[in-house]
Amino acid sequence: MFSQHSRPRSRRALALAGGLAATALAITGCAGIQNSTGGGDAGSESVTFTLATGAQAGTPNAAVQDWFLDRVEEVTEGRISFERTATEALCKAAEVADCVRDGRAQIGVTVPDYTPQYFPSTSMVSIPFLSQNSQAIMQSIYDLHTSYAPAMAVIDGNNLHHVATWPVGRFLLGSKAPLEDAGQFAGLQMRASGPIIQQVLSGAGANIVAITAPETYEAVERGVVSSIGGAIDFPVNYKIMELLPYWSDPGVGQYSTFGMWVSKDAYDALPDDLRQQFDSVVEELNGGEGIAAFNKTAAGQCQEMLEAPTVKNLTAWDESATRAWEESVGDTGAQKWIELATGQGLDDAKGVLEQYITGLETYADADYDDATSDCVAAFADR
Q: At residue 373, does pLDDT exceed 70?
């Protein structure tokens, strides 16, 4: 699905690679609606799954979600359909995983870090300076959950079936005054997601405030936080650029994810032919179509920032500032993640991380667009 060409590999990925040797559901009722026609012919059964989503309409993450739902309905000729609820209409963003687990919804889309205890097998994306390549990350996490037993077991144990996990975009800092190096973090009240990047920021002196993306605008407006760490959808789709004029890319790379899951019980109850069709679309999604949908929407976000009178600038840190922060962090991010994931019930967390890094190396040449870096360049050319 994706083309290949040479790209530089992350110093951190290379270093780590060397250093690491609730309620029973039925398919009827609250678990979705299944209708059968044709006198019990399994090939005529149809299923409706209810969606619970934390993806804001118009964001790249919503574009990934919508591509998948549309494609499943197309491939199954409507035999799998989706009741598409609005963002947070059924469940708050931080409750989506629980909504899927307990049967209020059968498919969920949100940030896994809101309920990290369920997703220790995907949170390694928050290890800073590890990878910039969104396609390599998405494909590597998919491979983990289709072929590596510890990752598969922790998701299954939470009554979920993994569909996809994708990075939300490069880590940006938004602030009231320019932030140009990690020495300026001391004392800042900062919103950020991703368990390891949160710890790294805290270690540099920032005070991390745990709030969801939809709550961020009000938190900044009321002074609960004075700066934020997030992807480009924060200034644009969540309107934080109305409140914070300075934005910068510190060189961390990808830092957090959105995830999509279905109820394991509902998935297991699908007729064999529908499950095979569903799985084929999952493979397409992770093989490049998801990132393509993400990038198509992300490409339009920069223009909104460029045209916003409240945005003073979007810059990239000087390489020396990024290098100094990366060197101060060292390999502590990987060790913190292994400890965290193990405590959250992931068996062989070290092995999972090794498999993930191997995947990043395998897909290092996967083609991807970096809308954030392109936007930094566009601001420099103004």
A: yes
Question: Using CA atoms in the order 324, 328, 333, 335, what is the torsion angle rounded to 10 degrees?
Answer: 150
Q: Which position has the token pair 């939300």?
A: 168
Please provide residue 375's backbone torsions phi and psi, each rounded to the nearest 5 degrees.
Answer: -70, -40
Q: What is the pLDDT of residues 195-233, one digit of tens each?
A: 999 999 999 999 999 899 999 999 999 999 999 999 999
The CATH homologous superfamily of the domain defined by 22-117+133-168+256-298: Bacterial extracellular solute-binding protein, family 7 (3.40.190.170)
- Cα gap 111→115, rounded to integer Å: 8
Q: Which residues have CB under 8 Å from 148's CB, separation 6+?
A: 351, 352, 355
Tell me: pLDDT of 364 over 60.
Answer: yes
Residue 288 pLDDT class (50, 70, 90 cuts)? very high
Q: Tell me the residue type at 277.
A: Q
Asked if the domains 22-117+133-168+256-298 and 172-254+301-380 are classified in one and the same CATH topology, the answer is: yes
CATH second-level architecture of 172-254+301-380?
3-Layer(aba) Sandwich (3.40)
Question: What's the burial of 363, exposed, middle or buried (CB within 10 Å: 0-12/13-18/19+)?
Answer: buried
pTM given for the model = 0.86
User: Any idea of the CA torsion for 123, 124, 126, 132, to the nearest 10 degrees?
Assistant: -130
Whether pLDDT at 41 is above 80 = no
Tokens representing residue 137 in the block? 């990350």
Position 368 confidence tier, pLDDT thresholds 50, 70, 90: confident
The pLDDT of 319-327, averaged and rounded, is 96
Residue 4: band (very low, low, confident or very high) from pLDDT cuts 50, 70, 90: very low
